[in-house]
């Protein structure tokens, strides 16, 4: 039997498959599907690592953003409280005054009041809350409430806060939405606030108030120089900033307001007379 015959006989042997299976079963062979599945195991692990890393990065970013927002909110709250403190202390005394009952204060841009955002409006509202954040039933936004008779009470307006009320209303009308107008004043009814005649009243009142105060301080100009040698006067303007003004010392008025707020009952009926002032009528409340 030649070689080819032996090979054919071997292939035709019924025990050949068994032999082959027994022989090669000792060496496990993997099909293409199994090989593909094993090759995907590292990829799956790598993908899981990437997913965990991405999740950690997102979580870290979220925490950082939350922290930044908290810091910004705290900073905004601090600045708002600082602005409220600033306006409650106006006018500031920064120089000695030779006239009794007055202080010298240098005007500036008063950024806390010149803004157009919600924070500026909050500062204006704080300025109107004459005695602080908790106005009592005795004084509200510059109105001193007294008994008129046994069952009724009536308000007297302090001129300075009346003028600020007008400015506050104008600021709100210019820079806030109409939805906020009706809730503006705790001292005046919504109907009165919405009247078209209220704004003209404020312009007229403010003009008289300013003229009555009669501040004739000479405010120095702002000079802008230019040219090659810087000796050419390019622009001249007056902002009022940097000029000292002689202002009324409001420390006694604030003490009176604080003591009025601290009372547990309304003030007695007022015997009003021309030129009556907060100090002349209630000066006894500001002592000590």
TrEMBL record:
<keyword id="KW-0812">Transmembrane</keyword>
<comment type="similarity">
    <text>Belongs to the ustYa family.</text>
</comment>
<protein>
    <recommendedName>
        <fullName>Tat pathway signal sequence</fullName>
    </recommendedName>
</protein>
<keyword id="KW-1133">Transmembrane helix</keyword>
<dbReference type="Pfam" id="PF11807">
    <property type="entry name" value="UstYa"/>
</dbReference>
<keyword id="KW-0472">Membrane</keyword>
<comment type="pathway">
    <text>Mycotoxin biosynthesis.</text>
</comment>
<dbReference type="GO" id="GO:0043386">
    <property type="term" value="P:mycotoxin biosynthetic process"/>
</dbReference>
<feature type="transmembrane region" description="Helical">
    <location>
        <begin position="48"/>
        <end position="72"/>
    </location>
</feature>
<dbReference type="InterPro" id="IPR021765">
    <property type="entry name" value="UstYa-like"/>
</dbReference>
